[in-house]
Design brief:
713 residues; alpha+beta; 7-stranded mixed beta sheet; 24 helices; 18% strand; elongated
Length: 713
């Protein structure tokens, strides 16, 4: 600003260079990230889930198909089972070969429906990581072997478990299908992002327009975006003006005006007018593709809570295996080998840590999805888990708590002049300038609905101000250097106001008419209205708020007083911001740093949680664990609320899943058999699936959280 108007900020080291507002630049690829256009991706039922260890390579469709076929085969197995017929009091029809229906169909169920569990169990043995799949595999294998021994008449055992095997496999497949669908719903967030890109675009050529596939666009192409259409690529508006719906990027439903020179992002919608856009990035290079990669990385990243669940699953394996061995020995010593086998199978069935395996991944998957829909992109799950423990949030000032652009704050006039008239003259002089200060003055005049007189002979006076002719009068607008050059002395009545402005770090511009000062205006970095809500809401949650800036103390203190910030670090060089994070940590505080992701990288990396403001920066900064796709500081509140809520859900699920198994295994072992309480393997499978459903429903409650920045209080 100073090179145009010589505005005296009385500020220290410059905070940082702010990229064009609203820009979302492309993040570097971190692996296999690929944008699919709408209609070309697969639905969530077909997704292969690679992030859930036990299900690596398995798809929702696979479990669904195996479940329905297994269920169809299980119906005749159960119907022709002598035990089931005896229990329900019916007589199944008898015909040659009818006795072999359960063994034949049961064998098909074992090898077809049970295949995922058998393979998964073998893999867990090879990896020496016993868990859920091994327990299921053991249970159905024991039931299969015992049933064939009985069907072949070997040893005189009465261990006909075909119907129980059939129901067990069917119920397990159903439970896994439910789980995979739930996990796939998080993948739906990626599909939703992919679907935001249109299949085709209108490319402008010398002979008119042509409709081409989006994949054929290249940087430098000129495209026409009509009202209601989505941007096919990232670019810059070169002609026209329209209100854009950028909610898919920022989480904010309010439209944003974009005109000539403004950046626009792939997937956003021009709501009211046509614009012509010069393409700057396509395909995997767009901000939308970068966001998709971030969501993919978040879903694939590991976390401390998941490690806890893995350890709990391993504990339950040894617990169940030990209980199974003791159960077999105890019932055998009691003289009932068939009961020993039955009780052992039941123990193995009911001890399957299925709900435990679902407890953490589902909470994290839903959390990641919900955050992404609110414009909060979690790159690292650990960042989400740590956010609930944060003691202080350290905000960078410029571009984070403030807009990074000048705003007209005050007007003072000399005796006989009117504020609106002086502002109208200043705006008229500045109307031909593209300088941010000039635009702010014109914007302020328009906000007051002032009629601007015509101006001619506009001249920019480098480092001093501007000059133009208005209604035959030569007017100047500029700072103290302009007054010195013109030999004009500021009236004492005006100086009383301008001195106070300068003391708080504002830039002062004077309006001079033929050597006479008519008035002055103060220009300050505009505080975002959302910042006040963010600061007060964080403090209500017991989190302190600090601010770091390169600006002078008086500038920083003015913003801090406006926002009621707890602690201020001023005149801090960009390279030294991480030292302020370390200083807070040295006091025993856990710090979340919120910055623009450029010169704040060391501070973002040092903090327990680094949060990069996405607007105007590279949304894939390696130093940040979280990226706010928009520039609304209230999104930090979404992170705090989501972190606390997801942590509660994780522990609720862990306690339920683990406690359920610990209490139910002794029951399955037959410790209450003397009281007539006996659980069959099928009943154990039903109860286990109920546990899974409870865990899934509990995790789904996270969807009730209001995470949109505008809704967080």
């Amino acid at each position: 600003m100073q090179d145009h108007h010589d505005m005296r900020h009385h500020s220290g080291p410059h905070d940082h260079d702010q990229p064009p507002s609203g820009t979302l630049t492309e993040p570097p690829a971190h692996g296999a990230g690929h944008m699919e256009h709408a209609g070309h991706g697969q639905h969530d039922d077909d997704h292969t889930v690679h992030t859930h260890g036990q299900h690596a390579g398995h798809s929702t469709a696979m479990f669904k198909n195996r479940f329905w076929l297994t269920l169809a085969l299980a119906v005749p197995v159960v119907y022709f089972s002598p035990m089931m017929a005896h229990l329900l009091g019916y007589m199944p029809p008898e015909f040659p070969g009818s006795a072999w229906i359960p063994p034949v169909l049961g064998t098909m169920i074992f090898f077809y429906g049970g295949q995922p569990f058998l393979r998964g169990g073998l893999q867990e043995v090879k990896d020496r990581t016993p868990g859920m799949m091994l327990l299921i595999g053991m249970a159905i294998s024991v039931a299969f072997a015992a049933s064939w021994i009985t069907s072949l008449g070997i040893g005189g055992f009465d261990l006909d478990f075909w119907w129980e095997l059939a129901l067990l496999v069917a119920i397990m497949l159903l439970g896994h299908w439910i789980e995979m669908r739930a996990l796939g719903s998080a993948q739906g967030a990626l599909d939703a992002l992919a679907a935001l890109l249109p299949d085709e675009a209108e490319r402008i050529t010398d002979s008119g327009t042509e409709t081409v596939p989006v994949s054929q666009l290249t940087p430098g192409d000129l495209v026409l975006v009509r009202p209601g259409a989505r941007m096919p690529a990232d670019g810059t508006v070169v002609d026209g003006q329209a209100e854009f719906d950028e909610s898919m990027i920022t989480g904010e439903s309010k439209t944003v005006a974009r005109g000539s020179g403004d950046p626009v992002v792939a997937g956003t919608v021009a709501t009211d007018s046509s614009v012509r856009v010069r393409v700057s990035a396509v395909g995997d290079q767009t901000a939308l593709a970068g966001i998709q990669r971030l969501v993919e990385e978040a879903q694939a990243s590991s976390s401390r809570a998941q490690a806890l669940a893995d350890r709990a699953a391993a504990f339950l394996f040894y617990f169940a295996a030990g209980a199974g061995v003791l159960t077999f020995i105890a019932w055998t010593l009691l003289g009932s080998v068939p009961d020993a086998v039955t009780r052992t199978v039941t123990v193995l069935v009911i001890a399957c840590p299925h709900a435990l395996g679902l407890a953490i991944p589902l909470v994290i998957a839903i959390s990641t999805e919900q955050a992404a829909r609110a414009g909060v992109l979690i790159k690292n799950r650990m960042a989400l888990e740590r956010m609930r423990t944060i003691d202080v949030v350290l905000f960078d000032k410029t571009g984070t708590l403030t807009t990074g652009e000048p705003e007209l704050k005050d007007i003072a006039v000399t005796e006989g002049a009117q504020a609106d008239a002086v502002l109208a003259l200043a705006a008229a002089v500045e109307s031909d300038s593209e300088h941010p200060v000039a635009r702010a003055i014109v914007r302020a005049a328009k906000a007051r609905n002032l009629a601007l007189p015509g101006a001619t002979d506009f001249t920019s006076l480098t480092g001093r101000g501007v000059r133009a002719t208005v209604d035959g009068r030569t007017l100047h607008v500029g700072g103290p250097a302009l007054l010195r050059e013109l030999g004009v002395v500021e009236p004492d009545t005006l100086a009383a106001s301008t001195r106070g402005w300068m003391d708080r770090g504002a830039a002062v511009l004077h309006v001079v008419d033929d050597g006479k000062v008519l008035g002055a205006v103060s220009m300050e970095d505009a505080v975002r209205p959302e910042s006040r809500q963010a600061v007060s809401a964080l403090q209500r949650r017991g989190v302190k708020v600090a601010m770091v800036t390169g600006d002078a103390h008086q500038v920083a203190q003015a913003v801090a007083a406006d926002l009621d910030i707890d602690e201020v670090f001023a005149e801090v060089l960009p390279a030294d911001k991480d030292k302020k994070v370390a200083e807070l940590q040295g006091r025993g505080m856990k710090v979340a740093m919120v910055g623009d992701g450029v010169n704040d990288s060391p501070a973002l990396a040092r903090a327990e949680v680094g949060i990069a403001i996405g607007a105007g920066t590279d949304v894939a900064m390696e130093s940040a664990g979280v990226v706010l796709a928009g520039n609304d500081p209230r999104a930090v509140l979404s992170m705090v609320d989501l972190s606390r809520a997801s942590y509660r859900k994780m522990w609720q699920n862990l306690v339920w899943a683990t406690g359920y198994n610990i209490l139910s295994v002794p029951l399955a072992a037959g410790v209450l058999a003397f009281a007539g309480v006996v659980l069959s393997p099928a009943a154990g499978a039903v109860l286990m699936s109920v546990s899974t459903i409870v865990v899934a429903l509990n995790a789904q409650l996270l969807r009730r959280l209001k995470l949109n920045p505008s809704e967080v209080r």
